[in-house]
Amino acid sequence: MKRILVTGAGGQIGSWLLPALRQHYGDSNVLATDIRHLGSEITEPGPFQLLDATDAKAVGRAVMRHDADTVYHLAAILSAVGESDPRLAWHVNMASLESVLDVAREQRCAVFTPSSIGVFGPDTPKDRTPQDTLMRPSTIYGVTKVAGELLCDYYHQRFGVDTRGVRYPGLISYGAPPGGGTTDWAVDIFHQAVARGHYTCFLAPDSQLDMMYMPDAVSAAMGIMEADSTNFVHRNAFNVTAMQLAPEALAAEIRKHLPEFTIDYDIDPVRQSIAESWPDRVDDSAAREQWGWEPAFDVATTTRAMLEQLREE
């Protein structure tokens, strides 16, 4: 049975992944960590401790005390927040990854690190973006993700660390609030549709981006770590996607359930420029072929699930 440590456990991904890991591996086998105190839904029923993931010694002590053999490293600053403080984004994203990788090298841990479609830039092919292609991002978040992919590759090749990861698209979920990303609109639109019947979007109506419902993101994270790596041609940055959404198209899907829902636009130039630098659609055939990636949710099933959950809440 694996012994797992999760950094950034209170974030958008962590708040979903942590319960799934505990259900699969046992509550006591999964240590949740975060830089801030979290609610009882995170700290119970399994172990929790405060942890600054940029502190390599603290990470090392936590891994040793928990006797962890796997680290899901989720702590990061996202795209829109990163543009407001690029130095902080570089420090948090890179120093924390370096800490985790050094500890993994010393203590022989496997490491999952999420990358992002943010690694792509305006010169990358936008339709069916290949697994291997030009990556010259225009955001500090994207720069840290490219550097992180390369650093994970290096630690695998140089030190034999079992590093694995996926390039997530925009993630849709209820529960934890959006974390300052360019795709946050695809979360907030559902909350506002249920609460107010109206949403003001910060992206243009036709800004299409890859998206994924959070249960599929959890499935991808756990699936790649359980996969037989002998089939891997790639390792740390598999493209994965489930659907392609633009604000106007998603609004139309929501109106199938809430006919009175309306949307207007107040475009944020920073996030709009970020969105325009990212792909319209990525090619995730490498993940499908090398470890069996297959999403379970499309636009219709995601919309139905989100609205049903938010109505209940």
Characterise the protein shown here.
By secondary structure, the protein is α/β, with parallel strands linked by helices. It has 2 domains: 4-169 and 214-239, NAD(P)-binding Rossmann-like Domain (Rossmann fold), CATH 3.40.50.720; 170-211 and 242-279 and 297-312, UDP-galactose 4-epimerase, domain 1 (Alpha-Beta Complex), CATH 3.90.25.10. Helices cover 44% and strands 17% of the residues. It has 12 helices and 16 strands. The chain has helices at 14-25, 40-43, 56-66, 79-84, 86-107, 140-159, 185-195, 214-226, 247-255, 269-277, 285-291, 299-312; strands spanning 4-7, 30-34, 48-50, 70-73, 110-112, 115-116, 127-129, 163-164, 166-168, 170-172, 198-201, 209-213, 238-239, 243-245, 262-265, 281-282. The strands form 5 sheets. Strands 3-2-1-4-5-8 form a 6-stranded parallel sheet, sandwiched between helices. Strands 6-9-13 form a 3-stranded parallel sheet. It has a 3-stranded mixed sheet with strand order 10-12-14. The protein starts with a strand and ends with a helix.
Helix and strand composition category: alpha/beta
Per DSSP E runs of 2 or more residues, the count of β-strands stands at: 16
Which CATH class of the largest domain applies here?
Answer: Alpha Beta
Low-confidence stretches: none
Q: How big a fraction of the residues is strand?
A: 15-25%
Helix content: 40-55%
> What's the CATH superfamily of the largest domain, by name?
NAD(P)-binding Rossmann-like Domain
List the domain count as a whole number: 2
* Rg result: 19 Å
General form = globular
Q: What is the H/E string?
A: EHEHEHEHHEEEHEEEHEEHEEHEHEHH
> pLDDT average, as an integer?
95
Number of helices: 12
Spatial separation of the terminal alpha carbons: 35 Å
In CATH terms, what is the architecture of the largest domain? Answer: 3-Layer(aba) Sandwich
CATH topology of the largest domain: Rossmann fold
State the strand order across the main sheet: 3-2-1-4-5-8
